[in-house]
TrEMBL record:
Organism name: Candidatus Doriopsillibacter californiensis
ACT domain sequence ranges: 359-431
EC numbers: 1.1.1.3
PROSITE patterns: ACT
Protein keywords: Amino-acid biosynthesis, Methionine biosynthesis, Oxidoreductase, Threonine biosynthesis
Catalytic activity: L-homoserine + NAD(+) = L-aspartate 4-semialdehyde + NADH + H(+)
Family, per entry: Belongs to the homoserine dehydrogenase family.
SUPFAM superfamilies named among the record's database cross-references: ACT-like, Glyceraldehyde-3-phosphate dehydrogenase-like, C-terminal domain, NAD(P)-binding Rossmann-fold domains
Metabolic or biological pathway: Amino-acid biosynthesis; L-threonine biosynthesis; L-threonine from L-aspartate: step 3/5; Amino-acid biosynthesis; L-methionine biosynthesis via de novo pathway; L-homoserine from L-aspartate: step 3/3
Gene3D superfamilies linked: 3.30.70.260, Dihydrodipicolinate Reductase, domain 2, NAD(P)-binding Rossmann-like Domain
Protein name per its UniProtKB record: Homoserine dehydrogenase
Statement: the UniProt record of this protein carries the keyword Metal-binding: no
Source taxonomy: Bacteria, Pseudomonadati, Pseudomonadota, Gammaproteobacteria, Candidatus Tethybacterales
Stored InterPro entries: ACT-like_dom_sf, ACT_dom, Asp/hSer_DH_NAD-bd, HDH, HDH_cat, NAD(P)-bd_dom_sf
Keyword Amino-acid biosynthesis annotated: yes
Length: 439
């Protein structure tokens, strides 16, 4: 049984195979059905689902429309080879089978749409090379920041521009946690539990709270914006797992909010990549991005700063991005650049050479000479202090000292911190975060 969602258009229908009918795949089916008339009109072709592939065909699927029942199969290999399908939607997630499935589809001459950021971040070279060899697109708008059209923006709207930097809040779970800590004064553990109850965070939230998910996305952005072929090893990643409420309070005293910022920045000597809790001025629009929302700032030579805001994940925002890619392919916009800007591969700046002003929080014994010793350790690394705050305390008691230091490389900051931590008056580990002031 073939299921067409709408009346005939002048062009032949576009057959698609959907692999995965979970959160995203199920919602894609809903959008295709509910919005069939508009999608058909905008595509110039009817979109026809030829098969829906799942892992467990026996599973009860209450949300699946009855029309779809006859299309269910657990045989992705056969579905990929269907001669009546031009496009494969890989919405199963995971790496190994998803990679095989995409490669098989490209070899069979199909275009591919995927939401699988983890796969593209780790196997992007192999997949985009296969796409290039097959002369077919691999579209992946849904893989980065849900419904925010950042891939199309970089690939199309800014195609004639030179991107200097991309900085974004691209993990909704982490942003929800940081917002709850800031606004409601809750601990990290309580904020995480709330995100899990609301369905934002997985039962194993490691990829979100340890920064891996944001790193996957910034790798895809860097590939497109700069042609950078980087791997996870090239991205210094710090998540929000160990983040403390008091650092939000201390940052606020200096006029900053804390956001998990993913950055890809073009410097004179290469591309700098990072994912870290970062101080941003409370007056900057990005500081007001709260809850599970995402925002991405792009700074380019001609357009200047542009800012994109929206739901970064979730069933329907992600499905909307998947369907937009299908429409693009139906319209014949498939021959899209996959490999960044075609210029020579830029070099990647090693993590220790990445520079920024920094926030430091030290716990020390309040004794004569302590500040001088700290300043001396920093001076030995050529790090100068911009501002200091110390709470009231009594001699000999433990007290927090907060410092903002001027721009220095991450390597020098960590060497300075190591020296400070070795001083007998320092209690515990020094906390540091970069500061992003924007231009
Ligand atoms: N959820 C989001 O908000 C979101 C946002 C952006 C991107 N994404 C990405 O979208 C992709 C899908 O995520 P999801 O949340 O929709 O996952 P999900 O709810 O777990 O659904 C996965 C679907 O794939 C099917 N599947 C898994 N392994 C399979 C296999 N080996 N063969 C055939 N079918 C298989 C499952 O079948 P059964 O139903 O039989 O188990 C299920 O229908 C992932 O790459 C994810 O990173 C998700």
């Amino acid at each position: 049984m073939l299921t067409s969602f709408f009346a005939p258009a002048s062009q032949p229908p576009l057959g698609i195979v959907i692999v995965g009918a979970g959160t995203v795949g199920g919602s894609v089916l809903d959008v295709l059905r509910e919005n069939a008339q508009t999608i058909s009109a905008r595509s110039g072709r009817n979109i026809v689902v030829r098969a829906v592939v799942v892992r467990n065909i026996e599973k009860a699927r209450t949300r699946l429309h009855p029309d779809m029942a006859g299309l269910l199969t657990d045989d992705w290999q056969a579905a990929v080879q269907r001669p009546d399908a031009e496009v494969l939607l890989e919405l199963m997630g995971g790496e190994s089978t998803a990679k095989e499935c995409i490669q098989a589809a490209l070899t069979a001459g199909k275009s591919v749409v995927t939401a699988n950021k983890a796969l593209l971040a780790t196997c992007g070279d192999v997949i985009f090379d296969a796409a290039h060899a097959a002369g077919k697109p691999v579209a992946y708008e849904a893989a980065v920041a849900g419904c925010i059209p950042i891939i199309k923006t970089l690939r199309e709207a800014l195609a004639g521009d030179t991107v200097h930097e991309v900085a974004g809040i691209i993990n909704g779970t982490s942003n929800y946690i940081l917002t709850a800590m800031e606004k409601d004064g809750v601990t990290f553990a309580d904020a995480l539990e709330a995100t899990q109850k609301m369905g934002y965070a997985e039962s194993d939230p490691s990829l979100d709270i340890d920064g891996g998910d944001a790193a996957h996305k910034i790798l895809l952005i860097a590939r497109l914006a700069f042609g950078a072929h980087a791997t996870m090893n090239d991205v210094p990643v710090v998540g929000v797992r160990d983040f403390k409420l008091r650092d939000i309070r201390y940052a606020a005293q200096f006029g900053f909010c804390v956001k998990l910022l993913a950055q890809a920045v073009r410097r004179d000597n290469g591309i700098e990549l990072s994912v870290q809790p970062t101080l941003v001025p409370c007056t900057h629009p990005i500081a007001s991005v709260d809850g599970a929302m995402n925002a991405i700032l792009v700074r380019s030579a001609y357009a200047g700063e542009t800012l994109y805001y929206g739901a970064g994940a979730g069933a329907f925002p992600t499905a909307a991005a998947v369907v937009a890619d299908v429409i693009d392919i139906a319209r014949g916009n498939g021959a899209l650049a996959q490999h960044g800007n075609g210029t020579p591969l830029p070099s990647l700046i090693p993590a220790d050479d990445c520079s920024a002003p920094h926030f430091l929080r030290l716990r020390v014994l309040d004794m004569p000479g302590v500040l001088a010793n700290i300043a001396s350790a920093l001076a030995q690394q050529n790090i100068s202090i911009e501002a200091i705050h110390q709470n009231e305390s009594a001699p000999g008691q433990e007290v927090d000292i907060i410092m903002l230091v001027h721009e220095a490389s991450r390597g020098k900051i960590f060497s300075g911190i190591k020296q400070i931590e070795n001083q007998s008056t320092t209690v515990g580990a020094v906390v540091t975060m970069p500061i992003k002031r924007f231009l």
